[in-house]
Write a structure and sequence with these properties.
Blueprint lengths: L6 E2 L1 E6 L1 H10 L1 E6 L19 E5 L7 E5 L3 E5 L8 E4 L1 H4 L2 E8 L18 E5 L2 H14 L4 E6 L1 E3 L6 E2 L4 E3 L7 E7 L6 E4 L11 E2 L3 H10 L4 E2 L4
């Protein structure tokens, strides 16, 4: 996972133009409950059945698996018969609301922003002052009575071999093209939470066409507009 001192070439929000215009003007962060992403089966970009999972164990790492319950009795399952990893989830893991963005942290030959991200909308906004953006979000969360604020890069794992913690900041490598930077707040709400951080007109770019995102990023890097992402 990229650390807070690694260079970041841009922190972007992708979406529909009208939504991003509203974001810049009013600074309203639309934060979905983490558990909701597991239910978005028809949304290929946002839906992820692993969201809210606390830990996974691959079949090859399972020695014994026994289920017991009222009216069910005790049943042992041969690990070799498992068709996928065993997943455990707790309410504590899923009980938060999240805001997702794209962090450009690595430049490649060709397009740094995969076209798979074009599924999120027709436009993008670049946060030009990342530390100020996060400071405003932290202050807004505090004023809203949210006692926990965490912002981190998402780490991606191989779903065929990884056993261990998943939590709020790990996703399957299938989604690595999203290069996600995520904000999570608590206490969680089962409904989307709207966190108002005030106008962002002074710390964001104009709303620009998604088709221009790679050209924009290339020009930004040539202008040496590179910063380290602060830790919060």
């Amino acid at each position: 996972m990229v650390g807070p001192d690694e260079p970041i070439y841009g922190l972007f929000k992708f979406g529909k133009r009208e939504h991003l215009e509203f974001l810049r003007r009013d600074g309203l962060l639309f934060m979905r409950p983490l558990a909701e992403f597991a239910k978005l089966e028809l949304d290929m970009a946002r839906g992820d059945c692993f969201e809210g999972t606390t830990r996974i164990i691959q079949p090859q790492h399972v020695k014994n698996l026994v289920f017991e319950g009222p009216g069910f009795g005790m049943h042992a399952i041969n690990p070799s018969s498992l068709v996928g990893p065993v997943r455990f989830g707790t309410g504590e893991t899923a009980s938060c609301n999240v805001y997702c963005m794209f962090a450009a942290t690595d430049l490649v030959d060709g397009e740094s922003v995969s076209r798979q991200n074009f599924q999120f909308g027709d436009s993008f906004v670049d946060v030009t002052k990342i530390d100020e953006f996060l400071d405003r979000a932290i202050e807004a969360a505090r004023n809203a009575g949210l006692n926990h604020f965490e912002s981190r890069f998402v780490e991606y794992f191989d779903p065929e071999s990884y056993s261990g913690e998943v939590g709020r900041f790990r996703k399957r490598s299938t989604f690595a093209y999203q290069s996600e930077f995520r904000i999570a707040v608590e206490p969680g709400s089962v409904m989307p939470r709207c966190l108002s951080i005030g106008s962002l007109l002074d710390i964001t770019s104009e709303v620009l066409p998604m088709s221009d995102v790679n050209e924009y990023l290339d020009l930004k890097v040539k202008g040496a507009d590179v910063v380290g992402l602060p830790s919060h």
